[in-house]
Amino acid sequence: MALAPLIYARCCYSPPIASRSSPQPSSSSSPCCSSSSSTPPNSIFSSLSGANRGERHENLRAQAMSTTTQGTSPARTSGNLKNDPDHLLVLVHGIWSSPSDWTYAEEELKRHLGKSFLIYASSSNAYTKTFTGIDEAGKRLADEVMQVVKKTKSLKRISFLAHSLGGLFARYAIALLYSPDTYNSGQPSDPANCVMENSQRTDFSKGMIAGLEPMSFITLATPHLGVRGKKQLPFLFGVPILEKLVAPIAPLFIGRTGTQLFLTDDNPNKPSLLLRMASDCEDGKFISALGAFRCRVVYANVSYDHMVGWRTSSIRREVELGKPPRQSLDGYKHVVDVKFCPPVPSDGPQFPPEAVKAKETAQHSQNNVEFHEIMEEEMIQGLQRLGWIKVDVNFHSAVWPLFAHSNIHVKKKWLHNAGVGVVAHVVDSLKQQETSSILPTS
């Protein structure tokens, strides 16, 4: 039975997304995203759209390439004859957390997505392991995913759903698991069911992840631009002196991860990790790996999130935020807006000599605001080379709105159940993506 259109997006660049019933219009808009008040009632929401140096990661890349070869074999394609799962969905938790954070979401995903999905909650970066650095955690996650893929021969597709810091772990991991294969370019749903029409497609829409066809990459309240800068770490209330003081002491509490999140891990010869992750560089094919997914979706709390600001979680500039929307979409309480932001052509992030000089000047003057603004703009330009679906969430009417960071993925059902509408939105988008991937093109 065909799945009805589920999610409503206001955009004119691509097939829009419909809600479960009548859509609720939103007055918010963003310069980077296109909006439209009319939505075709039968539109299908099918898409929201180099390995590291060292012998260990060359081996990991070789494993992914080897699995890619298996991806076209009869053994792979015949797996579903036994009703085995063919779509791996990896759940990645955030800082100082564990797989138990996904208990409610995992139950909902299993109940609604069916046996074709293998729902796997990652456990390789539990609790203090999240302090060892985004790169180290990403490597562990990549290893873990490869082990799952090797054990489950029926797998053909892969998606990621990550919360908070887990989104950065996942972005690093997929760069290690990426191989530039064109296996998925000829599939029936490739051009017609993509969020980006052919004219909007980029050079990044090819490749495999762990030898599987990449489908959806979804993050919930992830600090894609780090947490350095005005209101990027909301519990500091935007007070400049607090934002200035917390950066140097963050590593004392959360280790190498703190230096990377606060963008203090750079030197004149090597930019910060998060800036490198907004490009394809010697550390990995970060943008190519992201671009290989048919869907890239960011869910962002517009307010009440004390850990991750709206700007960094939605990959936007300050001027693009506007007034926070408040009216929920029909059927998805607290989901207040969905927009498609098409890819913006760019040369990607650069770190010119001028930026290095600005950093040196800032260090001497004890005022490095200008330098970090340069880095943030470079990260935005790099990530916006790809099209994104941006979903805004607002818990202003929830009983406990200040729990927004945990509500967004229902960390504990008894305490964070305000986010059940957000989880339902994620489930329905994954379900519709799965359905559209097997529909013939028109």
What's the arrangement of secondary structure elements?
Layout: H1 55-70, H2 74-77, E1 87-92, H3 103-113, E2 117-121, H4 134-151, E3 157-163, H5 166-177, E4 178-179, E5 208-209, E6 213-220, H6 240-261, H7 273-276, E7 280-281, E8 284-285, H8 286-291, E9 295-301, H9 310-314, E10 335-341, H10 353-365, H11 369-383, E11 388-393, H12 404-407, H13 413-416, H14 420-436
Parallel strand pairs: 1-2, 1-3, 3-6, 6-9, 9-11
Antiparallel strand pairs: 4-5, 7-8, 10-11
Helix pairs in contact: 1-4, 3-14, 4-5, 10-11
Which features characterize this protein?
442 residues; alpha/beta; Rossmann fold; 7-stranded mixed β-sheet; 34% helix; disordered N terminus
Give a description of the structure:
- By secondary structure, the chain is an alpha/beta fold.
- Helix content is 34%, strand content 12%.
- The chain has helices spanning 55-70, 74-77, 103-113, 134-151, 166-177, 240-261, 273-276, 286-291, 310-314, 353-365, 369-383, 404-407, 413-416, 420-436; strands at 87-92, 117-121, 157-163, 178-179, 208-209, 213-220, 280-281, 284-285, 295-301, 335-341, 388-393.
- A seven-stranded mixed beta sheet has the order 2-1-3-6-9-11-10, sandwiched between helices.
- Helix 3 (103-113) packs parallel to helix 14.
- The longest helix is centred in the middle third of the chain and has 22 residues, at 240-261.
- The protein is globular, with a radius of gyration of 20 Å.
- The two termini are 18 Å apart.
